[in-house]
Amino acid sequence: SGSSAAAPLPEEDCMKLNPSFLGIALSSLLAIDLWASKRLGVCAGEGSAWGSARPLMKVIEVSGHGITWLLGTFYGLCQSDSSAAREVLLNLLFALLLDLVLVAVVKGLVKRRRPTHNKMDMFVTISVDKYSFPSGHATRAALVCRFVLHHLVLAVPLRVLVVLWALIVGISRVMLGRHNVTDVLFGLLLGYALYSVVEYCWLSPLNAPALFALW
């Protein structure tokens, strides 16, 4: 009949036509993540559904910012006259610095762009802050929450407030349009796990005498 057999498709085209189950699942999760993040970004702009709450969300943003915590911890360290308090504050400072480095490295490797509905009016940003994954605020909030609950003696209402603050910081990142839902969820998990690293590497006058001699 003069017809020839169809030439086989290149391997990469076969993969596109027959994607794996994992590929389909990941694509579906990504689509759901982007859809949910956009729907929940109700404070992304002044004209958004909850635009009037945007100033409050930005206050919460500052409360979880790295600069705020670094300056506050350093000031407390300089003003403290108790060796036990200095040890705790020095380790908190170490935890915050470790958090900044780790989040910056992951952001630089993943390079996920921030949501398109985000307004780039964030408080004190650096180069990697143009990337979204993971949420540094969420990571820091979870880390600080575990740290405070383990090393400060607080009444039950205050302990509840600390946990609520960490959760609200994470939620506010999505409401402001700064991050996608998965950025925040991964950030919270990363911060929770990072505290275990800080505990394992706990600095004390016994294992870091030169560092404590500075204070």
Automatic annotation (TrEMBL):
It is found in: Endoplasmic reticulum membrane; Nucleus inner membrane. It is a multi-pass membrane protein. One of its GO terms (biological process) is lipid metabolic process. It is an enzyme of class 3 (hydrolase). The chain crosses the membrane at residues 89-110, 147-172, 184-203. The keyword Nucleus applies. It comes from the Eukaryota. Belongs to the PA-phosphatase related phosphoesterase family. This is Polyisoprenoid diphosphate/phosphate phosphohydrolase PLPP6. It comes from Corythaixoides concolor.
